Amino acid sequence: MRKWTVELRKALVAHVVLIGFPTIVFYWMRLEGWSVTSLHLLIATFYVISGLMLLVESTSAIARRFATDDYKAERNRFRRFYYRFKSRLGLGGARQPYPKLPVPRCSFLLAAYLPNEQEIILETLEHILLNVQRPPDGIEVVLAYNTPHDLSIEENLRRLAQVYPELKLLRVEGSRSKAENLNAAFDLVTGEITCILDADHHPAPDCLFRAWHWIEQGYDVVQGRSIIRNHQENLLTQTIAIEFEMIYGIVHSAKSFLTDSSIFGGSNGYWRTEVLKQIRFNAAMLTEDIDASMRTLLQGYRILHDRSIISTELAPVDLKSFWFQRKRWAQGWLEVALKYQRQLWNSDKLSLVQKAFWIYLLYYCEFYSLVAIQIIPIVLSLSLSDGTIPDNLNNYLWFSTMISFIGGVYQTLATAKVAQVRYPLYYYVNHVLMLVPYIFFKNIIAIVAIYDHVRGHSSWLVTPRGKQPYYISNLQKETVPPSPSVLNSTKS
């Protein structure tokens, strides 16, 4: 409870400084006859750019690239004509052939802080072992975990490894992070492709085939799509579910299509193992995944996002867990932005478009919360000085407000179209109604993250899983299912 109170106090202090001090400055400037119109225009332009980016990304994601020409076999004549028409307009995207070679041996690498994951880890491992389609040379599943003390679940893990020899267990002594767990496991990994998963992720059966489709074409990392599995829990998980559909189905998908670049998101990412072992993970970074993404791209390797590679995960079920998770993400992104700014500008491995993409992603998105909030002191200083807004500026302000709101609604509609799960209509209605307060709340978290970074605070708190439904492991059944047979075809 004390940590939560401290966080709220930091949020209050940060906002008093960011709103109170600028209000005094702007008020003084107005009294002295100085104009703040240009600053007002600049902030409004930030909103316009954000709204336009939402429109561009959503439209691009709807007109997604197709990996095959399967639409030609579509029986519905109208849909066949529709896809052909899109192709003629250049909206069908690049058509890649099916892989010529079968999927090679693959490894699944899971990192876990076991005290936090002990209620879900058996379910995750059994899901992978029994559901994922296997290539001819098979798979291996490596669980790299740390725990400060022995747990009863470890005995069940050892029993599971006896039943399924492809499961390897590695207790990483002295580890205090996901990055250390992953790095320690690289010596055990033997697959040509390595899929990194968090302990709550359940990948789709065809994940390896879909990832291999791109890796055989020359990509080094393929990031899949994360879907929220516990979306029915409460309003927060419903909101996060729609947000994740936007992030992975719209934002990352569109950016990958437009720039031929993407990020590794920490889980459901498929790496060439030789590249992964070279890059490794930095335990000193709050977001080791974004740090690894940046180093991967700066060394000339290629990352792609494919939203058809599905994995489900668990969302935070309360505001406190959500707060600390998102604060770590925001502060971690800021760390990466500051660390690699010079290398990004000077890189000869990235195209001009890719540099623009990463500058927007790292800098614009990170500092947006600081700039956007300045609209409050500008309006307050205007009220205190009894000033008025010129008509031409007033029209532009209304335009910036409308384009931002329309962009958010349009993105929600686009998300409903491309969503992997057909959620109830009220999920989307709630999301639109919650759009402004939800963004405002996330901006508060981002500002506190900047506050912590300036103060030198960089604590890494584990996101609690919340109460989970009781899972009956196959170890408790009379007959334990055998490992599934291999998938010999290169086509699903």
Quick recap:
This protein is 55% helix and 11% strand.
Structure description:
The structure is a single chain. This protein is α/β, with parallel strands linked by helices. It contains 17 helices and 8 strands. Among the domains are: 34 residues, no CATH class; 255 residues, Alpha-Beta Complex (Spore Coat Polysaccharide Biosynthesis Protein SpsA, Chain A), CATH 3.90.550.10. The chain has an 8-stranded mixed sheet with strand order 3-2-1-4-7-6-8-5, with helices on both faces. α12 packs across α17 and α14 packs across α17. The longest helix has 31 residues. The protein is globular, with a radius of gyration of 24 Å. The chain starts with a helix and ends in a 37-residue tail after the last helix.
DSSP strand count: 8
Write the element-wise H/E pattern from the N-terminal end onward.
Answer: HHHEHHEHEHEEHEHEHHEHHHHHH
- The oligomeric state of the chains shown is single chain
Distance between the termini: 50 Å
CATH class of the domain at 106-360: Alpha Beta
Shape: globular
Mind telling me which CATH architecture of the domain at 106-360 this is?
Alpha-Beta Complex
Percent range for β-strand residues: 5-15%
Q: Unreliable segments (pLDDT under 50, ≥5 consecutive)?
A: 487-492
Roughly how much helix do the residues carry, as a percent range?
Answer: 55-70%
Helix segment tally: 17
Structural class: alpha/beta
Going by CATH, the homologous superfamily of the domain at 106-360 would be Spore Coat Polysaccharide Biosynthesis Protein SpsA, Chain A
Instruction: Record the strand order, biggest sheet.
Output: 3-2-1-4-7-6-8-5
User: What Rg, in angstroms, do the CA atoms define?
Assistant: 24 Å
Biggest sheet architecture: 8 strands, mixed
CATH topology of the domain at 106-360: Spore Coat Polysaccharide Biosynthesis Protein SpsA, Chain A
Overall average residue pLDDT: 88
